[in-house]
Amino acid sequence: MDNYIVTIAREYGSGGRLIGKELAKELDIAFYDRELIVLAAKESGLAEEFVQKMEYKRTISFINNLYMTGYELPVSEKIFLAQCKVIRQVAEEGSCVIVGRCADYVLRDVPNCIRVFVHAPMEERIKRIREVYGEEQPNLEDFIRKQDKNRASYYNYYTHGKWGKAQNYHLCIDSSIGIPASVRVIKELVAEYTKR
Amino acid sequence: MDNYIVTIAREYGSGGRLIGKELAKELDIAFYDRELIVLAAKESGLAEEFVQKMEYKRTISFINNLYMTGYELPVSEKIFLAQCKVIRQVAEEGSCVIVGRCADYVLRDVPNCIRVFVHAPMEERIKRIREVYGEEQPNLEDFIRKQDKNRASYYNYYTHGKWGKAQNYHLCIDSSIGIPASVRVIKELVAEYTKR
User: Fold this and answer.
1) A19 belongs to a structural domain
2) Spatial CA neighbour of A94 closest among A8, A28, A5
């Protein structure tokens, strides 16, 4: 098989980003996450910091609107389109792992695209974001649910699909077996796809 | 690890039953599907044929109602309870694969229970039920959707959960990579769980 792409969508705090990073390392292929934002920022001609702030935001504020002319796309749509372009570009350049950014949807017509969704029970996610991310919100469960809601709403808005629906993905995995174990299971799936 | 149980829920025509059977064979553990019905039938004191006919039926007909006294449970509930008992029994006896029958829900408090959901794109399922099951309905897509609906409604009624929701399972897999490949990926997951 030529190039292949693994897209990873993930619940907040499930360790999906880390799984993607480890997977890319073990498969010796490129890894894209925030790096993609940087590339997209350059692409759209918008400041990197602004692009990061706009991440997962669908609506545009009144202030942002002031900068728009009647002929322009809203800033959030501009960023999304720039990201789509970057995702398609890096996917053409070589095998890679892409975390988030609706990459599964953007690459829906690419045959060598393996779509993965990572989730975990709430108690595992609370533990992770407290211990690993050092997050200290008063109500972590609410905070996590809000992050998931943002991801789902961003995905559903741009793709007209349903974020986290099992049938959208080749593999959905509960990461509570641990990061290395999850990586090994996904690697097995990638091996099955790439040997076809 | 001592005994472990793999439960497999599956979309109609996804090959989930076959995957479960192959998996059990490769892991050299017991496999339960229709066999479970036979055991449940004996347990409930109802005729095997009748139990099979009642499969996935929640509601009871007027005729069946005639046989009920005010103190009796509906026949469908009786069968479900008998199946639950059998599922818990076989899970205690030794490692096994159980296909369908809400086994993931029935064994929700069993720590060594690995929950799997198998799905496949519609065109793959149409192909499978035509070629493998020899099904020749005029509109196979409608037929498949109806079977899925029955499974979902049966599961959701008895478990108050949501059939096919990614977060309910340790692994959801698209079987379009093939039966042997799907079995190998699930085997990798089982290996990760059992070596903990």
Assistant:
1) yes
2) A5
Tokens of B6: 């793999």
Q: Which of B167, B178, B192 sits opposite A185 (nearest CB)?
A: B192
Residue A196, in any domain of the structure: no
Backbone CA torsion sign across A19, A116, A112, A32: negative
Q: How many angstroms separate the CA atoms of B191 and B196, rounded?
A: 9
DSSP annotation of A72: S
A72-87 residue pLDDT tens = 677 778 778 888 888 8
Choose the closest CB to B167 out of A119, A177, A184: A119
Q: What is the ipTM of this complex?
A: 0.86
> What is the side-by-side order of every strand in the sheet holding B96-99?
A30-32, A96-99, A5-10, A113-119, A171-174, B171-174, B113-119, B5-10, B96-99, B30-32
Residue A152 sits in which domain range? 5-191
Tens digit of pLDDT for each residue in A135-164?
777 889 999 999 899 888 888 888 888 888
pTM over the 0.90 mark? no
Q: Return the residue in B124, B192, B193, B196 with the most chain A beta carbons within 10 A, the one to mutate for interface testing.
A: B192
Distance CA A120, CA B119 (A): 20
Distance from CA of B38 to the nearest CA of A (A): 31
Domains: count for chain B: 1
Q: Are A192 and B172 inside 8 Å of each other by CB?
A: no
Q: Which CATH number covers residue A31?
A: 3.40.50.300
Burial of A15 (0-12, 13-18, 19+ CB in 10 A): buried
Chain A residues lying within 8 Å of B164, measured CB to CB = 166-167
